[in-house]
Design goal:
With about 70 residues, the protein is an all-alpha fold. Helix content is about 45%, strand content about 0%.
Length: about 70
């Protein structure tokens, strides 16, 4: 709320504007979701927000990597 962005906008744009990310792949089930994702793309992200997100604690790769998940 502080930046007037939705969760979709924050998540998508953090990845798109992160220097260490080359590509962003999103999955959708309906054309409307693709349209919403396209509309969520912002030309710029507030620098303060990028800093806040970048300073979040690191998450274990085991949590982020589905191949490490146990059935």
């Amino acid at each position: 709320q502080k930046y007037g962005l939705t969760i979709r906008e924050v998540c998508l744009n953090f990845a798109l504007h992160h220097d260490e990310v080359d590509r962003v792949v999103v999955g959708v089930e309906r054309p409307e979701q693709l349209q919403q994702n396209i509309e969520a793309i912002k030309e710029n992200m507030p620098g303060d927000l990028m800093h806040e997100l970048g300073s979040l604690p690191n998450v274990s790769e085991r949590l982020l990597n589905p191949s490490a998940w146990k059935p």
